[in-house]
Amino acid sequence: MEKMYRNFAIGLVLLIILAPLGLLAVGETFGEWGSEELKEKLGFVPQGLAKLSGIWNAPMPDYALPGGEGSESMTLSAGAYILSAVVGVVVCGGLLYFAGKRVAKD
Amino acid sequence: MHIPDGYLGPNTFIAFWIIMIPIWYYAGKKLSTELKSRQVPLLALSAAFAFVIMMFNVPIPGGSTGHAVGGAIIGIVLGPWAGVIAISVALMLQALMFGDGGITAIAANCFNMGVVMPFLGYYIYKLISGDTEITSSRRVIAAAIAGYLALTIAAGFTGVEFGLQPILNHDASGLPLYMPYPLSVTVPAMVLEHGLGFSILEALITALIFAYIQRTDTSVLFGEKSELQKNKMKNAVPT
After folding, report:
1. Cβ pair B95, B4 in contact under 8 A
2. Cβ neighbours of B96 (radius 10 Å)
3. How many independent structural domains does chain A possess?
4. Is residue B3 situated within a structural domain?
5. How far apart (Å, rounded) are the C-alpha atoms in residues B113 and B161?
6. How many domains does chain B have?
7. Interface of B with A in 105-134 (CB under 8 A)
8. The pTM is what?
9. How far apart are CA B208 and CA B33, in angstroms?
10. Residue B1 falls inside a structural domain
11. Among A4, A47, A96, A98, which would you mutate to test the B interface (most chain B Cβ atoms within 10 Å of its Cβ)?
């Protein structure tokens, strides 16, 4: 079982390293358009959407460094993307590991 | 499939918070009474895996990009209720820290990816597996189909939630206030994109991880031991 966990962890590290490949995938995602894109598509931005869409300012929007959107080099974006994945793994994994250890039986 | 802020009206996203709060509560309670120490690393790994696999964008023909979720294999390995917790934690962090998925839509996204997927994944896998041996190759196929259907149907749910918006939320002149496209656009778009693209990836990932576990240690799979004991006590349900 230990070996299995180790191999899963290795797989996870590989996924993290390869994750920036996803940055090469250009295209839109249905239902995740920004206001600009919606204006282009519809000719207007739905009122409620315009109001709600700015409700939250994420510290690292779209897995990029804060403030540097669009102007970054591919290397920097890839680095920020990997950093985001590491943060995700450490926070999600860490949180559930420690919470799990606290409540686990036997 | 991460619904951003502004695409669902308050009537819809609040409804999902009302649905999700008792689900999270029950899932958390169940986890705290049933979780075994040796399952803890898998729980942590599952959340981390869900987080990273959702960042892994792949393009499909037609100019769309999207990703797998890992929700089905997590449901099969951890059981559906623990799966709810693992996937929800990943989705909450993605929304709060990285703006992937809206904060108002956290509950809706957790429902679509964090509830629909592990439950469908687990039960479809169980249904197709029947009473075959745990090492049977039929179970690998079952896992693949479970992954494929779980993501496709979860995308269908998302499509329905999107498509209800113009009906539920419009101004006096009929202009949509949130997601502007009707059901006739949103459901086919979500289902086809996933069914012809991302769900195939989900099926592959589900089958691959399942086959690996089959070859190494099947005792980590949810319910395997207790299922065996149950079968010993009373005869297996005929399929």
Report:
1. no
2. 15
3. 1
4. no
5. 13
6. 1
7. none
8. 0.94
9. 30
10. no
11. A96
- Please indicate whether, in this complex, the C-beta atoms of A22 and B58 are within 8 angstroms of each other: yes
Interface contact flag, B177 A47, Cβ < 8 Å = yes
pLDDT of B197 strictly over 70: yes
- Alpha-carbon dihedral of residues A72, A59, B19, B201, nearest 10 degrees? 30
B239 assigned to some structural domain: no
Contact in structure between B46 and B76 (CB atoms under 8 Å):
no
Question: What's the CATH number where B181 sits?
Answer: 1.10.1760.20
pLDDT at B235: 59
Nearest CA in chain B to A93: B44
Q: Which of residues 30-89 of A touch B (CB under 8 A)?
A: 30-32, 38, 42, 44, 46-63, 81, 84-85, 87-89
In B, residues 65-104, which contact A (CB 8 Å cutoff)?
65-67, 85-86, 89-90, 93-100, 102-104
User: In which domain, by residue range, is B103 found?
Assistant: 10-233
Average of per-residue pLDDT values in chain A? 91
Owning domain of residue A90: 2-103
